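Q: Hi! New to this. If I give you a protein sequence and the SMILES for zinc ion, can you show me the bound structure?
A: Yes, paste them in.
Q: Okay, here:
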Amino acid sequence: MPRQDLLALTFDDLVTLSNRGITKRATQEAQDLKAEVTEEDTGVVQVIWDDATCRLLVGVTLAQAECTCTSIGMCRHIIRSVLAYQAHASASVNEATDFGGDANSEAPAPIASKPWDPGAITDEQLESLYHKNTLRRARTEFERGQVLELVRSAKPVATVHSMSCTVRFLVPGDPNYTHCDCAEPAPCSHVPLAVWAFRLLEPAKEAGLVTTHRDPPSIPTDTLGAVEKTLAEIAIIGLAHTPAPILERLRRQGEELRKAGLVWPAEIVDDILLQTQSYQTHDARFDPRRFADLWSEIHVRFDAIRSDTGSIPQLFVRGAASDRTTEVGSARLIGLGSMVHSRQGVTEVESYLQDMDSGLVVAVQRTFNDPDPASGEDPRPFSKLGQVPVAKGVSLSSLAEGQMLIKGGKRTARCEFIIGRSPATFNPQSYQWERLRPPLLVENLEELNARLESRPPQCLMPRRVGTNLFVLPVASVEACTYSDEYQELQAVLADESGRQTLLTLPYFSRGAEGLNATLSLLQSPESTLKFVAGEFHRTAAGPVIHPISLIFEKEGHRIMHQPWLSKSDDASSNASTTQISIPHEAPWNAYLARLSTEISELLLLGIDTSSDLTVRQWSDLTQQAQKSGLKNIAVLVEAVTRSLDEKRNTPTAPSTKTAAALANLAVVVLMTRM
Ligand SMILES: [Zn+2]
Ligand SMILES: [Zn+2]
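A: Thanks. Here is the predicted structure of the protein with zinc ion bound:
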């Protein structure tokens, strides 16, 4: 009986179990050096080399294999022996089947890697591997309530969100061959947790979220109701006219939410109050659409808290006590790239980094008020904003590109990072992104798709920067062009298995330099794209990436390119001369945008100050929704319109009815727009 476990290990698995350097060297040596492979009846494989002898034991991890050399733990002889055994096994299969005289019979393909379910690993297997106490502790943790994101692929993955670690299963049915990014030796105590969680995932599902708690958390109905009542009042009076006592009441209610463990809803209240403040001080940071989104998001989350069906983890919807501003001691932060968010009057630049201990993604952010258009001053190009320093001698752009060793700082609930006063060390990095931590780093598009499909919409995810940031290894750039129609750069990228995804980068005159440079790098035959980091969004046609960085390999060296902040070395690039046309949008996208604007208008000025014109505009919105075939939305828009009209005709009619109709609509619009 051949050793299926050893045959199932791929090059990448061996890298995961040791490291890239050892695996590369061992692969070369396995081809060059002579080995004598014998397989004992017990299944133990012995491999004799000139410089060492290895014994690959049964039922233990690869790190527990024996080698006669002096190095501790996994040495390259063991990796070499696995490879020698695989060659040996395939040669003997050839001998056995070669009698037909088929000259084409190549070495048999390695064991077909089909998706499998780690839930099938038995409790007996776990009991034979772990000490009783370890298993009991794991069971207690499991029952205390954990949130896991599971993917049943050829190499299944379990991300324990509540413990910030990720377990990968490398060999079908064998818990010995697992890798976790925690500090424990393999197989770590998260493996049983993952196995039990996989058993809770519906058998037909390829991926999904599992919450393991038995008792659903309590629902603070009174607090939710009180907040909703205040929000309705603001909608009726309008943000522009809301008196200070009502805002003060909202602030106190936000504290109540926090006390009840509803961290994310409490954060939304804080954001609403910040928007209010910006409005009152005529700060450019006030954005009526943003205010409306916050007002809607809190209703979405309250709905998910009240009707807890178990399909969306309450940990995501509510947040946890650990989601607060925390002091960070020493940490190593690896730059991942940067993104620019630009809207009327304000530009935000965010540089993203991964904390190599926790795997959390954090952002260092700067907000810039753009010059008043009346002043005649041109807003600065994005590349100039990237040069703004965030610490001594380090700019936003260089931070996103290098790595930083810090001795102190703060991380907010949203995972914004505030660099402390203690000295930080900045270094360049060599972009060995194979070592970034999951779930940020995914193996391929299959895993990425499964993750995206199992996740709830953004408005129900943890309110952290980077929740939809991923790093994807890229095998090839299939096509790359500038689309006049959409005013964006479009590139088709493929992973190792040939699956494809679209990358898009929108055109901004202030970001034209970066866009041109991206286009010429993607089209250049001298540089090979190795990784892309970016926000991934699910669309009907598959995932779309909005990149924050691209890692290219050129003459053996890796470089990072930041599409938003980089300067163009090549001014003659063709993209800048491309004619720009009006982008084509799906008609319902434009409609939803208009609807959002009208909702924000109503929230700003108040339901009670609505005029005949408001009613006419809303009647028009109803008709448009009916025409575009948005049936569900049409019904909700009509409800708002009808109650606005009623209020115009009968001033004594209660405005609360309109506010409730508006909340129902806002929830659906926010969920549809995601
Ligand atoms: Zn050795
Ligand atoms: Zn672990």
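A: Residues 98-110, 570-584 have pLDDT under 50 and may be disordered. Let me know if you'd like me to explain how to read the tokens.
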